[in-house]
Design brief:
Layout (H helix, E strand, L loop, with lengths): L2 H43 L2 H7 L2 H6 L3 H11 L4 E16 L2 E14 L3 E12 L7 E8 L10 H4 L3 E4 L1
Parallel strand pairs: 4-5
Antiparallel strand pairs: 1-2, 2-3, 3-4
Helix pairs in contact: 1-2
Length: 164
């Protein structure tokens, strides 16, 4: 093969790799935003079943008192929701053969006419390795967010809804 053909192939492969990275990031953004909108809608409507349906079977099985946690969350948030905004995300992916899991972690700020609330979410948006794990694993409401130091997300990770 000539050097020109090899160079062209290297450029083509590089372009394909870089463009696929952009699609994954866009897809992660879209998944995080869609899930956040579902969570906010359920909170706004105080819809227990809608919120519960977002959580994985594993999270529901492991949560201490999911129904009580939902009630606590709905009672804690005061006022009418005015806006929400995702604060960023990170993700992990694992592939085993043709199966994979994709964990997305992100925070979001929820503003009502009475207060501002900071959330952190752990969401297995895709899990074909363990389908019982697909869905939200943790929804954490962080009180006094700017005034406290938080442990790592791994140390705070627990199933269900967590207000702290």
């Amino acid at each position: 093969m000539s050097k020109k053909i090899i160079l062209m192939l290297l450029i083509l492969v590089s372009l394909l790799l870089f463009s696929s990275c952009g699609r994954n990031k866009g897809s992660e953004d879209e998944r995080a935003d869609a899930r956040m909108e579902q969570i906010v809608s359920a909170i706004k409507d105080k819809d227990n079943e809608a919120l519960k349906s977002l959580f994985s079977k594993k999270a529901l099985d492991e949560a201490d008192d999911f129904v009580g946690e939902v009630d606590s969350l709905f009672n804690f948030i005061q006022g009418d929701i005015e806006s929400w905004e995702r604060d960023g995300f990170s993700s992990d992916e694992s592939i085993e053969g043709h199966k994979r899991f994709w964990m997305i972690r992100y925070g979001f700020t929820l503003k009502t006419d009475k207060d501002v609330y900071e959330f952190f979410v752990i969401d297995y948006s895709v899990d074909t390795i363990n389908t019982d794990n697909q869905g939200v694993y943790m929804l954490e409401l962080i009180e006094n967010y700017g005034e406290r130091e938080l442990e790592s997300w791994q140390d705070r990770m627990r199933a269900g809804i967590y207000i702290h």
